[in-house]
Structure formats: structure tokens, C-alpha cells
């Protein structure tokens, strides 16, 4: 009986010690957990671990962000012509987006269609719109070569965004900002790429008969399919734009708008996330405003694919033709200038009421 009692007491003592051990161990683990939570170094490691393993929602957001650009945003001009457009009051302002390093392209345009400053009694002004070739300090001055070019020609507008294909929407919206604030006495503006031939005579002739308000024209794409192939240059994912086709928009190679539109498009842009496909984005803003795009008076005036077989009077019959590169403008201009016999015929053919 005594042996049985001693065994029972020993078992109780072992159980108590085991229980005490577990309590102490739990307290120690609790203290360790609390220390790790409040310790800055441990918390940093925890945050870093969470960041390296994002949730599905974060992943989708990151993937989607590549299709958007930073706009609206307070960009500013590091090179400007603050008074020229207001003082001149041109009938048309032609805006030419171009890379900062593409001085040759700018010089070619100045020597060809960009030298036509008065046509059919109307004044035309030309400006080259540049971003920055690199991003550093926002107050960084422009390159010396661009600064000298600006002093000589007074046609350079350079803003402080990074000049890249993905930022063409930013470039377009900055252009609209400048037009809205600098050209109160101008009727129309045209945006045109630097590797494009522009027939300024036909442009002015068309605009003399065009509406002065709610007017945008060019090569209007209607019912264009949204490209879902990730390898495409113009790929847009369904979570960014779920519709199968875009609303009507004017192809960015060259389009015209009345000067009442820039301010309204900028207002619409505050409510529509800015996708990187610039001409599509302008079309989205126009749809939001409820303003339809206008087709040009003739289907062959704004041309992206120039016909391989064409008559000698072809360049007198168009307004815009996309070329292979800016150097080709020189050859086209020579052809155009040497055929004045084509001008009257083609203008009367396409613009008869």
C-alpha cells in the first residue's frame, strides 16, 4: 500500500513538472513572438517577405499598370514659346511630336512642307514637341544643342516627361494643354508625325469649309478590334479595356481638331484612366464627351499605306501620307514641288461642295 502511494505521488509530481515546463515554454515563445513583432529589424524582414510574395490581386494590379501612363500630372515646359501663338493668331497650328535627338527630322520638315507659313491667305504656325531623353532633376536644363536650335528657330516646345513610345499619350495631352492655354485666337490645330508628308494647301482648303466647333477629323478608325495578343505592340488586356472594339478614333499619324476641343478633352481625361495608346485614348475622351468624329470629305486624303503604283499627281491629291522615314520627305517634296500643274486640278476634284 505504501509503495502504491509513493508511486502515485511520484506520478503526480512528474505531471506537475511537465505541466510547469509547458507553461514556461509557452511564455518564452510568447515573449519571442512579441519581441519579433515590435523589433524594427524583424518587422522589416516580415514586410520584405510579404512584398516578395504578393497576392493575386496585387499581381493583377501590377500587370495592369503597364498599360497606363502617369496622367493627369503636373508636367511643365523646360523650353517654351509662351507668347508666339497668341501674338501671331494663326489659322492652323501644326504640332509635330518628335524625339529630342531627331534634329535631322526637324530640319527636313523646316526645309519642306514646314516652310509654308501662309497658304490661301491664312497663317500656319509649326511647333516641334519634345520630351526629355533622360529623367533626372526636373529642373535640369535642356541640352545645349536643343537650346541653340530653339534660339534659332523659335519652334521648340520641350516638356519634362520621358520621351518614349509608351509615353505618347502624355505627349499628346501635354500638347493639348499647351494649345488650350497658348492659342486663344487660333481656329484649328493639327497633330502630325515627323515621318509624314503634309500637303498644307489641301489642309487649309479643307478647313476653310469645316466646322469651327466640335470638329475632329483624320483617318477615322471605326469598330477597330482590341488586340489581345501579348506580343503585339498595341496589346491591351481585358482587365484594362474589356470591350472587344474601340470607339471611333483618328489615327495618330495625322489628325485635325477645332480649338474648342483641347480644354474639353483635358476635362474628360480626369475621369478616364490614361492608356498608353494615344490615339485610342483621345477617342475614349471624345466618346465620353459625346462628340462624334468627322470623316474627311474624301477617303483618300489621310493615307497610311501609300499605294506602290501612283500617278505623278498623287502627292497633290492628299493631305497626309505616312512615309518610310523622315528622309523620304525630301524626295516626295521634290516631286510635289515640280508638279504645280497638279495642284489646281486635284484641289478642285476633292473639295467641290
Automatic annotation (TrEMBL):
Entry's localization field: Golgi apparatus membrane
Keyword list, A-Z: Glycoprotein, Glycosyltransferase, Golgi apparatus, Lipid metabolism, Membrane, Signal-anchor, Transferase, Transmembrane, Transmembrane helix
Entry's Gene Ontology molecular function annotations: N-acetyl-beta-D-glucosaminide beta-(1,3)-galactosyltransferase activity
Domain of life of the source: Eukaryota
Enzyme Commission code: 2.4.1.-
InterPro entries listed in its UniProt record: Glyco_trans_31 (IPR002659)
Pathway in which this enzyme or protein is active: Protein modification; protein glycosylation
Spans traversing the lipid bilayer: 20-38
Major location category of this protein: Golgi
Membrane topology: Single-pass type II membrane protein
An annotated GO BP: protein O-linked glycosylation
GO cellular component: Golgi membrane
PANTHER family: BETA-1,3-N-ACETYLGLUCOSAMINYLTRANSFERASE, HEXOSYLTRANSFERASE
Protein family: Belongs to the glycosyltransferase 31 family.
Name of this protein: Hexosyltransferase
